Structure formats: C-alpha cells, structure tokens
UniProtKB/TrEMBL annotation:
The species this protein was found in: Oceanobacter antarcticus
Region of the whole protein represented: 293 to 571 of 571
Superkingdom of origin: Bacteria
The protein's name: Bifunctional diguanylate cyclase/phosphodiesterase
Segments forming domain EAL: 23-279
Length: 279
C-alpha cells in the first residue's frame, strides 16, 4: 500500500492490498503463537563425507496457524524480523534447541563432536546483549559450548561489521562455532573471512541444485571449497537432494552435507531413529 505522508490515509492498490492484509493478519496471529503453543522445532541432520556419519543437526522453526495450518518460515520469519518478535522467538528457539541437544548428549543419541546449528536473524545479531544471552542459554541448559554452532548470513554480518566482529570473538572465546549461511549469495567482499573467527561456510542450495549439469555451479562450488580449505574452514553443502549431487560435491572435497537425500527436517522424537540409520 502507498502511504500518504500528510494525512496518513492509505491508498491500496489492487496488487498490494491483499498482501498487506495477509501480512497484518499474520502479524497479529504471530503475537500469540508462543503463548498458544503453535511453534515447533524440527531438526535436519548434517552428515560427513567420511562414512556419511552424523555430525550435527540444524534446527528449523515451524508455525502452525490455527486456521491456515503450517506456514512456511520464508513467509513468517520476515514478519517476525520486521516486528521485532524475532528477538523473543529466536531466544525461544535457541534455548529449546540447546535443551534438546543436551538431552540427546546425555542419552547418548548424539556425540560430543557433533553440533546443533541455530540460525540467527539480522535483528537478533544486532542485539547488544546477544553474547550474554547465548552464554546464559548455554549455562542454563548445561550444553557444552562446543556443541553449539550459530548460522549467520554474510549480509547479517556486513550490516554492522564492527559490532559483529566483537560478538564473533566473544563466541569463539566461549567455544561456540560460527557458520556463514547461504555463502556466495551475499555480494559481499571476502576480506572478513581472514579476520574473523569463522568455522564453516555453507554453500547455498542455489549453487547445489543444478551442480550435476551446470558447469558454472560446479565451478563456484569448487572455488568456495578451495577458498574455505585454504583458510582452514570446513564446507557444508545445503540442499543435497540426489546421489549424483553428492558425488559431484564429494569429488570437489566438500566436508559435510545436509539435504533431503539424507533426511528432511524431523521432529525431535524422530531424530534418534535417523541417526541410528546414519552410521
Ligand atoms: P536456511 O537457513 O537456508 O535453511 C535451509 C532450508 O532449506 C530449510 O527450509 C530446509 O528445510 C530447506 N532444505 C533442506 N534440505 C533441502 C533440500 O534438499 N531441498 C530443498 N528444496 N530444501 C531443503 P525452511 O525450514 O523452510 O527454512 C527456510 C528459511 O527460514 C531458513 O533457510 C532460514 O533462513 C529461515 N529459518 C528457519 N528457521 C529459522 C529460525 O529458527 N530462525 C531464523 N532466524 N531463521 C529461520
Ligand atoms: Ca541455515
Ligand atoms: Ca542456508
Ligand atoms: Ca539457502
């Protein structure tokens, strides 16, 4: 909708009016999602190239709207981000995921050298006390800090590189790992890679999905893997859907994989079975 700055009157255009209404509806529904217990976490395994054994899981947020049913995070995460709700919701995700992973560690479901990966949105990353919040989540749940990895995109990091650098060093000091998510899609310089304590680059699915047939995608993946290894970083490929894709990535020397070929994201109860099937 176009806003008239002088009298605050809104003029809806046919294309944008429905979208704005949908957004407003989602926004008010999201306000109650936490207290109404409509949020769920799902976990997607990550496996290593060697023996394809379990090396960790990424936690992904799910929301069941009372009427619409399951809403994609690509729809509701931006609304959470714009409204600021991502701060409490993100903290909920972090704490729940740490708690769950600690339980799996205690039960021997996962190993001490595996990690739970949690996504951090741009707005979360800008929170001044984020380092303290992460530290508190670790302490309160008893999760070893080395069992936690945080995923941020390049643009999240670039938005405030100075504050971001301080935070990353604080996290490294704690023993928490950092992954750059959707790597290669952010149009940013690579200079930050040599100065900051980063552990993983995640190759975006857009370079992975056609890698078998598209030589340019293969060239990009090859370059990312070479760059990462020269800098002492590990590479995770996301969106691995087929054996052929896995074969190409394995030939290029990719370290870890995540994707439907191995497993879709699953609820906590189902993860132990998946891991048992991995080894
Ligand atoms: P992302 O961080 O890049 O997460 C990977 C997405 O790829 C997930 O979508 C996952 O389900 C999907 N995926 C995994 N393997 C495959 C595959 O083989 N093929 C295809 N086509 N897709 C695959 P999802 O769960 O819909 O999440 C979408 C995005 O929403 C995430 O992208 C992330 O940016 C955001 N998101 C999800 N949960 C959270 C959260 O707890 N916090 C924040 N800040 N963002 C989240
Ligand atoms: Ca991610
Ligand atoms: Ca990603
Ligand atoms: Ca992606």
């Amino acid at each position: 909708a176009k806003r008239d700055g002088r009298n605050g009157c809104q003029v809806f255009t046919p294309q944008t009016a429905p979208m704005d209404k949908i957004r407003l509806g989602l926004e008010s529904a999201l306000h109650h999602a936490l207290e109404r217990d409509e949020l769920r976490l799902v976990y997607q395994p990550q496996v290593s190239v060697v023996g394809q054994h379990f090396v960790g899981a990424e936690v992904l947020l799910r929301w069941k709207h009372p009427v619409l049913g399951w809403v994609s995070p690509t729809v509701f995460i931006p609304v959470l981000e714009d409204t600021g709700l991502i701060e409490p919701f993100g903290e909920w995700v972090l704490r729940r995921a740490c708690q769950q992973y600690k339980r799996w560690l205690d039960d021997g479901v996962v190993g001490l050298n595996s990690k739970i990966s949690v996504n951090l949105s741009p707005r979360q990353f800008r929170q001044r006390d984020l380092g303290e919040r992460i530290q508190a989540a670790i302490q309160d749940t008893g999760l070893p800090p080395t069992s936690l990895a945080l995923e941020i995109t390049e643009s999240t990091l670039m938005y405030n590189l100075e504050q971001g650098a301080v935070l990353l060093r604080q996290l490294r000091h704690l023993g928490v790992s950092i992954a750059i998510d959707d790597f290669g899609t952010g149009y940013s310089s690579l200079a930050y890679l040599k100065d900051l304590p980063i552990d993983y680059l995640k190759i975006d699915r857009s370079f992975v999905k056609d890698i078998v047939t598209d030589r340019n995608d293969a060239a990009i993946a090859n370059s990312i893997i070479g760059l990462a290894h020269n800098l002492g970083l590990k590479v995770v490929a996301e969106g691995v859907e087929e054996q052929d894709i896995l074969n190409v990535l394995a030939d290029l020397g990719c370290d870890q994989y995540q994707g439907y070929f191995f497993a879709r994201p699953v609820v906590a109860d189902e993860l132990p079975l998946l891991i048992a099937g991995c080894d």
